[in-house]
UniProtKB/TrEMBL annotation:
Protein name: VOC family protein
Pfam families: Glyoxalase
Residue span(s) of domain VOC: 4-119
Matching InterPro entries: Glyas_Bleomycin-R_OHBP_Dase, Glyas_Fos-R_dOase_dom, VOC_core
């Protein structure tokens, strides 16, 4: 049986911009990656690898495919918004009806859609 989600994989059209987005804007940590025989990176959240980045593959013509987006539980809405604003990364912030969860949607430099979910008690 499935116990949880292990990771997402992103094909980086521009490795430097991709790494800057995931580490500087989203706050993931670049960490240990075994020698898989091709270039890439593993990005960590809370000590666990959650995003695998490929540096050696062409981006598919149909970028999103059947996966609509990846979503992360996040903390620090004000600080996160400040990082997005400082980096010039466009985003959409909305409040989920009913639960009040803050949802920040954006796209990584390769076109992958990313969602960050913040507790309803956080302020903007």
């Amino acid at each position: 049986m499935i116990e949880g989600l292990n990771h997402f994989t992103v094909i980086a059209e521009d490795p430097a911009r991709t790494m800057a987005f995931y580490t500087q804007v989203l706050g993931l940590e670049d960490g240990w990656r075994p020698d898989l025989g091709f270039p890439g990176a593993w990005l960590y959240a809370g000590g666990r690898a959650v995003v695998h980045v490929y540096f050696d593959r062409p981006v598919p013509q149909q970028r999103a495919g059947v996966i609509d987006h990846m979503a992360f539980t996040a903390k620090g809405l004000k600080e996160t918004k400040a990082r997005f604003d400082a980096s010039g990364t466009p985003y959409e912030l909305r409040r989920q009806k009913g639960a009040g969860t803050w949802q920040l949607f954006c796209h990584d430099p390769n076109g992958a859609r990313v969602e960050l979910d913040f507790d309803a008690s956080e302020t903007t």
